[in-house]
Amino acid sequence: MVRTKQRRGRTVVIVGALLLLAIVLVLWYVLAGRLSLPGPTPTIPGIDDTQSQPASCPDVQVVSVPGTWESAIGDDPYNPSANPASLMLNVTRPLQEQFDPQRADVYTVPYVAQFSNPVAFPPDGQQSYNNSRSAGTAATVDILTRRFAECPLTSYVLMGFSQGAVIAGDVAAQIGAGDGPVPADRVLGVALLADGRRDGTSATQVGPPVGGVGAELSLDGLRLPGITMTGERPGGFGEVAERTVEICAPSDSICDAPAGALNPTNWALAAPRILEYVNNPIHALYNTFVVDENGTTATQWVAQWAAEKIRSAPEPREE
């Protein structure tokens, strides 16, 4: 009888421990957040008949999405200070210096811009990638939606780095599919640096050739608390594909990862590449990464590219 009670007691303890573990795991996933991206946002009907727009509208709206830890909620979109070393400032500041806001309004999307370690104990206090990416996408769609509603003839230049490149690229793909917040023919160009969903074929590649793919393609199907790898963008960039450029430095694990790394049949080919990523700082060096024979760096190239787009953009008639 005593042994029976002891066995029952141990069973209760084990079941209780397993139940507690299950609760912790559920809370872990819930608090880490699911990826939530905006659905199709049909453009305003009848816009083709518009002949003019308010004088307060810019000719071109530049939307820049910074990378992880390079932005923050509430940051000033016209004078970002959350991270003075933010890579995209090397593109947006030169544009602000060259162009009057009436010609080109340069807007840096303020968002969470974090990527927590899902197995950190104690928790690192960062927002999850899912939460950050979802918030960044919503904020990008919001500025485009508001600008288009106010200024139906304004043209757009979209750009982003790292997590910001995933966000800008996703919004561009949505626009290219005809489901975005602005019409595809209003987009002058899209520039993505170190895009985690780079497939190597859907956009024009600038710089040295890169054989790998974005980390989200390499790890497609991976589901961890707060981290959802979404693979390639179905349909690529659609109508804006010919106006989309991507820059990826060889051995940058964010955009140059081995294809299908989770597939056991690819492990033999993927394993040797892991050594390329150990103590490799290339992801943080795009401001000095040279992309052409003239010694132009990645950020210089994007700034020059964007400036050319702005200079050649139409000048809508004002009301």
Give a written overview of the molecule.
Belongs to the cutinase family. This is Cutinase family protein. Keywords: Disulfide bond, Hydrolase, Membrane, Serine esterase, Transmembrane, Transmembrane helix. It holds the Pfam family Cutinase. The chain has helices at residues 2-32, 89-98, 129-150, 163-176, 215-218, 267-270, 274-277, 298-311; strands at residues 60-65, 104-108, 155-161, 187-193, 204-206, 223-224, 227-228, 244-247. 45% of the residues are buried. It is globular. A hairpin with a 2-residue loop joins strand 6 and strand 7. The chain has 319 residues and is an alpha/beta fold. It has 2 domains: 1-32; 58-311, 3-Layer(aba) Sandwich (Rossmann fold), CATH 3.40.50. The protein is built from 8 helices and 8 strands. The protein starts with a helix and ends in an 8-residue tail after the last helix. Helix 2 (89-98) packs parallel to helix 8 (298-311) and helix 3 (129-150) crosses helix 4. The strands form 2 sheets. Strands 2-1-3-4-8-5 form a 6-stranded parallel sheet, sandwiched between helices. Strands 6-7 form a two-stranded antiparallel ribbon.
Write a concise synopsis of the structure shown.
The chain crosses the membrane at residues 12-31. The protein is α/β, with parallel strands linked by helices and 319 residues long.
Tell me which oligomeric state these chains represent: single chain
Query: What is the CATH topology assignment of the largest domain?
Result: Rossmann fold
CATH architecture of the largest domain: 3-Layer(aba) Sandwich
The percentage helix is 25-40%
